Amino acid sequence: MSQSIPTTKPDHFVIQKKKVQFLGLTVDDCIKVFFGGNAVVSIVVLALITYFLFREGAGFFGQNRQNLMVYRQAGLEYVDFIREETDNHTALTRYLSDLRLRSLNHLVQQKGLSPEAAGASLAKFDEFAGQFGEAVDPVRVILSDLTETATAIKTKFIVNEDKKEERRQLLAEGKTVEAAAVRIVPVDFNAELQPLRGTLPVFKAANHAFANTLTALLNQVPVLPAPELEQRAQRFQALTRDFLATLPLVERNLETWDHHRPVPVSQTITAFVFGRQWLTASFWQDWYGIVPLLVGSLMVSIVALALAVPLGVGAAVYVNQIASLREQKIIKPCIEFISAIPSVVLGFFGIAVLGEALRLLSQQSWLSWVPGFPFSERLNILTAGCLLALIAVPTIFTLAEDALNNVPRSFREASFALGASRLQTIIKIIVPASLSGIISAVLLGLGRVIGETMVVLLCAGNRIAIPDFTNGLAVVVEPVHTMTGIIAQEMGEVVRGSIHYRALFVVGLVLFLVSLGINFMAQKIVRRYRISIG
C-alpha cells in the first residue's frame, strides 16, 4: 500500500493567506483593485478637468453681456455703423490698388514699356483712384469726432466701475472712512449721448454728398489696357453699386438705434460661437469670437491629416503585409521614435529649417503652377501642417497596424486559395476588413494634432483672421492662429477673473469637448470593429 502524499501547505503560506483574509480581501481582489483603480482615477481626473473648465469659464457669458451692454450704451455701436461704411469703402480702394498693379505689370511685361512709361500711361487711372479714395473724407472727419466722443463716454464708465471696485475692497477691509471718500459719479448715458446723436443731420448731408460723388465717378472709370482688366473694372463698378445701395441702410440704423435696448443672453452666446473677431486690449472694443481660432485649428489639422494618413496607413500596410522581418525591425522603431521628439524641438525645426525651405521651394519657376506658389510667409498653415503630420504618423501607424493584425488569418488564406494575388488580397480583403480600425486610427490622429500646442504656436503664423477661402487651395499658405496657440500665448498675460481670462477657459472648454468627441467616436468605431470581427 502506497503512502499518501501530504497535501497540507507550508505554515508560512497559511499565515499569509489568513492575514489577507483578515483584511477582507483575497490576493485576486487586491490585484483587481490595484489595476482597476486606473479607471477610477481616469474618471476622477476627467470630472475634475470638466469641473475646473466650467467653473473658470462660467462667468464669461455674464461678463461678455456686460461688455456688449457698455458697447451699446456708450455709443460705440452707433459709431461702428459709420465705421463699417468707411471700412467697406476702404476695401473698394484696395481693389482699385490691385487693379492698378495688375495694369502696370501688364504694360511692363506684355507691352514692353518701362516702369516710368507704364506709370505715366496710367495717369488718368491714378487721378480717378485718388478722387474715389478722397470722396469719403467728409464722412471720415465725422467718424473721427464721434469716435472721440464715444471713447470718452466709455472711459467715464470704466473709471466709475473701477471706483466702485475700489470702494468694495475698502469696505471689505473695514476702512469705511476711506471708502466714503471714494467719489462715484453715475454716468448719465442719455445726456452723454446727446452730442453723438446730434450729428445725425450733418452725417446724412455728408453721406448724400459722398453717394453723389461715387455715382458720378462710376461714369468716369478709365479704359484699361487688356480685356481681363476691363472685366475686373466692371466687377469694381458692380461692387461699388452694391456699396451705394447700403448707404441708406446705414442712415436707417442710426435713426432707429436705441441705447436702452437690452442685450439678450442669446446674443452673448452667438457673439462667441459665431464671432469672426478675437480682439483684446483694444482702446475701442474687445471682441471674443472663436470662429477664426476654430477655423485655424481645423485648417492646420486637415493639412496634417492629408499628409499623415497616406504615410501612416501606407507604412502600416507595408510593414504588416509586405515587409520582411528585417525590414520590420528597422522601419517600426524609426517611425515610433518620431513620437519621442519633443514638440518644441519640432517647432524650432519648423522655424529655422522647414519654413524657410518651403518658402524657397515655392519660388522655383517650375513650381509656379502650384496654387499659392510663390509665397512670402514662411510660417503658415502648410508649415505647421507638415510638422503636425510628422507627429500624427506614429499614432496612425501603430493603431492601423494593430487593426491589420486583428484581421483573421483565414481571410488572407481564403483569398490566396481563390487565386488572388498579394496586392488584390491587401486591397480587396485585408484593408476593407480593417477599415473600422483604420478610421479610428485616423480619428485618434486628428485628436492628437488638434490638441498640439507648441508646433502651431511657433509655426502657424499666429494671425487672428479667417483665411481667404476665395483663393482656393492657395489658402494653405496663409498664416492662422489656433485654439491651443491662443491659450498658450495669452494665458500668462491676463488678469485672473477678467473677461479675457474667462474667455480663454471657454476656448479651452470647446477644445476639450472637441477632443473628447473625437476620442469617443474613435472608441465607438473600435468597439464596433471588435464586435464585427468577433
Structural class: mainly alpha
Uncertain spans: 1-6, 11-22
| 3D shape | flat
CATH superfamily of the largest domain: MetI-like
Percentage of residues assigned to helices: over 70%
* Second-tier CATH architecture of the largest domain: Orthogonal Bundle
Q: How many structurally independent domains?
A: 3
Which strand order do you get reading across the main beta sheet? 1-2
Mean pLDDT: 88
Major sheet summary line: 2 strands, antiparallel
Number of helices: 23
The CATH topology of the largest domain turns out to be: MetI-like fold
The separation of the N and C termini measures 53 Å
CATH domain class name of the largest domain: Mainly Alpha
Task: Sketch the topology as an H/E string, one letter per element.
Answer: HHHHHHHHHHHHHEEHHHHHHHHHH
Question: Mind explaining what this structure looks like?
Answer:
- The chain contains 23 helices and two strands.
- It is mainly alpha-helical.
- Helix content is about 75%, strand content about 0%.
- The longest helix is centred in the first third of the chain and has 36 residues, at about 135-170.
- It has a two-stranded antiparallel ribbon with strand order 1-2.
- It folds into three domains: about 15-55; about 70-265, no CATH class; about 295-534, MetI-like (MetI-like fold).
